[in-house]
């Protein structure tokens, strides 16, 4: 990845009566524009996210989605859907007077990248996608109900702990009740447990520092509440919509690179494979010694190679 840099401009964009988004620009003011779509939903951006792009070639645009990171109000679920976020991306593009830009997203960011590109294919120069997630019921069930639990039983026990045994037949729904409880202690306990499960499972080698991120109440509350809100509502789209032929047909002309960890249990490789199968014009890289995180060495290397490849497009 490229060395750390600081933004040359930061701002707030009012996108509704409720929400105001944080955004920042870094790199080359006259460079090739690229927008970074963070994961979660609710994860927010991080300063190190700038490092996926050559700062001499790219005008790097990061923003925090509704309710996430430095956007306000934090953890707000009102007017917060996939299609609200797609509209927000367009509002940001209009604000910055950008005709077309490159789109980069991992995990939920890959979901949003596909939704945006399928809605506005004429605005996208390229797609660089990592850890593919299309919010199908089967994907949610694997990670939050029965699948990843077989690989991380000790972490799964901690994830189960806030939920009474009688409510465990639908854990996403059970968590929804607690994450929206009127009791703050209940909400925060559930949020930390939800976030910790994902932090536990995100890397090939379990990283205690990454897990500790879930102890941050503000982060965990936004991350867990917004993720759960989207999952209870099935992403506000048809099951498998992003992989449907008529949707993929809209983006076949867009140069696309997919980077996927072989041992990603958060967003298993079957979804990246399914995307490449219906979208054979894309290039799929399966990294043999990586999990889910964009910071896995093999994944980060391929992501930077992809953005370098598209830098002059």
UniProtKB/TrEMBL annotation:
<feature type="active site">
    <location>
        <position position="264"/>
    </location>
</feature>
<protein>
    <recommendedName>
        <fullName>Proline iminopeptidase</fullName>
        <ecNumber>3.4.11.5</ecNumber>
    </recommendedName>
</protein>
<keyword id="KW-0645">Protease</keyword>
<feature type="active site" description="Nucleophile">
    <location>
        <position position="107"/>
    </location>
</feature>
<dbReference type="InterPro" id="IPR000073">
    <property type="entry name" value="AB_hydrolase_1"/>
</dbReference>
<keyword id="KW-0963">Cytoplasm</keyword>
<dbReference type="GO" id="GO:0005737">
    <property type="term" value="C:cytoplasm"/>
</dbReference>
<dbReference type="GO" id="GO:0006508">
    <property type="term" value="P:proteolysis"/>
</dbReference>
<feature type="active site" description="Proton donor">
    <location>
        <position position="292"/>
    </location>
</feature>
<dbReference type="InterPro" id="IPR029058">
    <property type="entry name" value="AB_hydrolase_fold"/>
</dbReference>
<dbReference type="GO" id="GO:0004177">
    <property type="term" value="F:aminopeptidase activity"/>
</dbReference>
<keyword id="KW-0031">Aminopeptidase</keyword>
<dbReference type="InterPro" id="IPR005944">
    <property type="entry name" value="Pro_iminopeptidase"/>
</dbReference>
<comment type="similarity">
    <text>Belongs to the peptidase S33 family.</text>
</comment>
<feature type="domain" description="AB hydrolase-1">
    <location>
        <begin position="32"/>
        <end position="293"/>
    </location>
</feature>
<dbReference type="Pfam" id="PF00561">
    <property type="entry name" value="Abhydrolase_1"/>
</dbReference>
<dbReference type="InterPro" id="IPR002410">
    <property type="entry name" value="Peptidase_S33"/>
</dbReference>
<keyword id="KW-0378">Hydrolase</keyword>
């Amino acid at each position: 990845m490229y060395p750390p840099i600081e933004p040359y401009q930061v701002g707030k964009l009012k996108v509704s009566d409720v929400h105001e988004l944080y955004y920042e620009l870094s790199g080359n003011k006259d460079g090739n524009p690229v927008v970074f779509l963070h994961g979660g939903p609710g994860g927010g951006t991080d300063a190190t996210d700038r490092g996926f792009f050559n700062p001499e070639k790219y005008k790097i645009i990061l923003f925090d989605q509704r309710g996430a990171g430095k956007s306000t109000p934090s953890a707000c679920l009102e007017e917060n859907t996939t299609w609200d976020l797609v509209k927000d991306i367009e509002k940001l593009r209009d604000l910055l007077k950008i005709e077309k830009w490159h789109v980069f997203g991992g995990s939920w960011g890959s979901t949003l990248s596909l939704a945006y590109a399928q809605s506005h294919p004429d605005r996208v120069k390229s797609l660089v996608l990592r850890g593919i997630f299309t919010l199908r019921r089967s994907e949610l069930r694997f990670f939050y109900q029965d699948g990843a639990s077989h690989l991380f039983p000790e972490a799964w026990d901690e994830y189960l702990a806030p939920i009474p045994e009688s409510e465990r037949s639908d854990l996403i729904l059970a968590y929804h009740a607690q994450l929206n409880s009127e009791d703050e202690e209940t909400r925060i306990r559930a949020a930390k447990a939800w976030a910790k499960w994902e932090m536990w499972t995100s890397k090939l080698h379990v990283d205690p520092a990454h897990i500790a991120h879930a102890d941050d109440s503000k982060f965990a509350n936004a991350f867990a509440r917004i993720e759960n809100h989207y999952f209870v509502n099935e992403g506000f789209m048809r099951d498998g919509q992003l992989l449907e032929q008529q949707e993929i047909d809209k983006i076949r002309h867009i140069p696309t690179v997919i980077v996927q960890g072989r041992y990603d249990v958060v967003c298993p490789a079957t979804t990246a494979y399914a995307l490449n199968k219906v979208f054979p014009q894309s290039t799929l890289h399966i990294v043999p010694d990586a999990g889910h995180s964009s910071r896995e060495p093999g994944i980060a290397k391929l992501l930077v190679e992809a953005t370098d490849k598209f830098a002059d497009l």
